[in-house]
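Supplementary Text 2. Reproducibility record for the structural model of the 351-residue chain.

All settings were left at their defaults, and a single model was retained for analysis rather than an ensemble. We include the record here because the model underlies the residue-level annotations in Supplementary Table 4.
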Amino acid sequence: MSDPAIPVPRLRLGPVEISNPLTQAPLSGYSDGAMRAVARRLGAGYTVGEVVLDRFVVESSRGGKGEKLLRIGDDEHPCGVQLMGSRSEDFPPAALHLVELGYDVIDLNFACPVRKVLGRQRGGFLLGQPDTALEIITRVRETLPPHVPVTIKLRRGLDDTTASLDAFYTILDGAMARGVAAVTVHGRTVEQRYHGPTSWEFLAEVKGHLGDRIVLGSGDLFTPRICARMLCETGVDGLSIARGAIGNPWIFQQTLALLEDRPLPPPPSTHEQRDVIAEHYRRCEAIFGPSRAGRRMRKFGIRYAELHPCPEEVRAAFIAVRGPADWQAVLACWYADDRPGRYPRSTFVGK
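Retained model, structure tokens:
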């Protein structure tokens, strides 16, 4: 008889209880309702919609396709959404409208390192503007009902200077004093963008600094083993899994297995992959319509291909997709026979 599984701790964001510490991060252009639903079914305890601009949200409240894209399903709870902007007065009405649409948590982005975003004084730019960042947090927290948690996303500073580190802790401590329920910390600076190592030592430092306040770790979570190690070695309360979940939603259930001291599950077979890809496509089509779904799903197909036993050929087939018929043809051709799948190439990194 095998040993019983070790219970995986639940996660709390204020009054919102989450079944496990694994969350799907907000991903621009990816974490729409289709991706979120698939991630939840395959083990994510909590998902966050892709980052939206405050002004876009306010304009969507007047109706039209924008509001349709922001809506969430009845089966998605708990679900958060990430909000980004530059002016403190624009955040509260946007946050309030997102709550009216059904989101359970509002996450504020002070981390995005994209140059266009920084040039418009949004995202990671605000890590260098503690007064503005804290004013945004104050206004959003005071506007929303008490039962709606506000969380924040930070990087470990604009750069590696002492002044940048001081600004980070000014924002972090000020946010907690204002009632923020949790912080997600990416272990790179804004200046690093996605280059160089993410600092687990910094994540452990932040968790030690905050004590029993909720900290989620982020950065380079591409494999279940690395996910499990980050949780165990840094002491963070949960993980925000981003690029590692694109085309590989099984990373959640695989990580849960390791956290429960069970063996790493085998990679999904081609029929398991086919069924999930088909579900993902159906959900995407329901949101965006047939004409847009094929093009939008192409980038997911390229990543799903990494799990197929013929990854290069399947990747090329997905790249060639132009419409719904092409999409179905790829599944019919390459996923007809049930064959063993494979882990993405990076799965055994960090073993």
